[in-house]
Every structure is written in C-alpha cells, then in structure tokens.
Amino acid sequence: MIIKKEMALTRKMFLKSLPRALDCEDFEVSGDVFIREDNGRKFKITFVEQALVKLGGFSIPRADVTLELTGYKDQEAYVAIERFQRYFHRGGG
User: Fold this and answer.
1) What's the CA gap between 86 and 67, in Å, rounded?
2) CATH number of the domain that 54 lies in?
3) Which strands form 33-38's sheet, in the order they lie side by side?
4) What is the pLDDT of residues 31-69, one digit of tens each?
5) Host domain of residue 60
6) What global pTM score does this model have?
7) Domain count along the chain
8) Rounded to an integer, what distance in angstroms lies between the CA atom of residue 53 and that of residue 36?
C-alpha cells in the first residue's frame, strides 16, 4: 500500500512527532527515508521538504510525504495509517 500526501510540516516538526506516530523510537533513518520494521512488516516514510508557501504575511511549511506499507494485513495497515495521521493532524476550521 502506498499513500502520497502533502503536509504542512518542517523536518524538525516531523522528527518531533514521528516516534509517537510510529509507536516506537526504533526506526532507521537514511536521508529523507525513515523505516520501521517489525515482525516481517515494513513501514517506510519518505519525507521531502519543499519550499515554503507564501500567503500574504504568512509562510507555510510544506513537504511531500510518501507512506509505503508492506507485509501488513489490511486492518493492520489501516490502524498504522490512522495512528500516523492522528499524530500529524493539525488544528483547522
């Protein structure tokens, strides 16, 4: 399963929330790629920071994020993605 997202995050913000989003601090980092392997399952996240978006006097961080899950049953993948999204959810109207 592959999911592509555009997220309003800096790398620093991403790294701060990632351990909680993955429910562990045991993951590999290689440049823009973060991998958590567990019991034959692999959760790979590619985080590529993009240029800020300027809206009037505001600057909004932006990143392209790709989630790749292999070895997960459908329900396990759903739970992992929901957890990831919950920890990166930002308030809004």
Assistant:
1) 14
2) 3.30.1370.80
3) 2-7, 58-70, 41-55, 33-38, 28-30
4) 999 999 999 999 999 999 999 999 888 999 999 999 999
5) 2-88
6) 0.87
7) 1
8) 30
